[in-house]
Amino acid sequence: EIVLTQSPATLSLSPGERATLSCRASQSVSSYLAWYQQKPGQAPRLLIYDASNRATGIPARFSGSGSGTDFTLTISSLEPEDFAVYYCQQRSNWRGAFGQGTKVEIK
Amino acid sequence: EVQLVESGGGLVKPGGSLRLSCAASGFTFSSYSMNWVRQAPGKGLEWVSSISSSSSYIYYADSVKGRFTISRDNAKNSLYLQMNSLRAEDTAVYYCARDSPGGSCYDYWGQGTLVTVSS
Q1: How far is A23 from chain B (nearest CA, A)?
Q2: What is the mean pLDDT of chain B?
Q3: What's the pLDDT tens digit per position in A2-41?
Q4: How much is the average pLDDT of B89-111?
Q5: CB contact (8 A) between residue A46 and residue B95
């Protein structure tokens, strides 16, 4: 079973700052890694798929990188609407395990 | 426009059963694998179950194996989750989600339906 570990659990930043979120897999998932954003009371929204591809309509300030076991989601300059919880998910197999999430909060 | 609409949630006693439905529209349902994901109150996302487009492949999380059954009716553009022997720890919002065409992510999600297991 592949386990995804996200860090940090909480990131306290100000609007305009850069956010760097990490996701580490317990074994290689190649590039089959996705990132989602979830706001309170809403369903998750796909941001990044295949580690580095932005989903339709996602702003360019969101970028993903990595392969194998180490992945990063970067938000280059935080907008007020970016404060939310972010989850990574592996799709190297059918068991689409999620990380535990990183909350990006306003400092 | 792709739409996924869950229904069937509610309050059920421990040991009881519930059947969730997910009505799909705006895409060729029979061409996509589908999934159920749940989120306990204040917790993270947990993958529950997946089913391939023709129901040939079905997978469950260990936490629900033997108690939950995923199914689909391509003629009705609908996904289902039959939940039996429910436990308090099954309390969560249940989302249905579509696999992307390449199968590497969940590209569309419903708004979720709340299942509460309590006496």
Answers
A1: 14
A2: 97
A3: 999 999 999 999 999 999 999 999 999 999 999 999 999 9
A4: 96
A5: no
Shortest distance between the Cα of A33 and any Cα of chain B, in A, equals: 7
Q: How confident is the model at residue B80 (pLDDT cuts 50, 70, 90)?
A: very high
Q: Which residues of A touch B45 (CB under 8 A)?
A: 36, 38, 44, 87, 89, 98, 101
φ, ψ for residue B66, nearest 5 deg: 90, -10
Please tell me which residue of chain B has the smallest CA distance to A34: B105
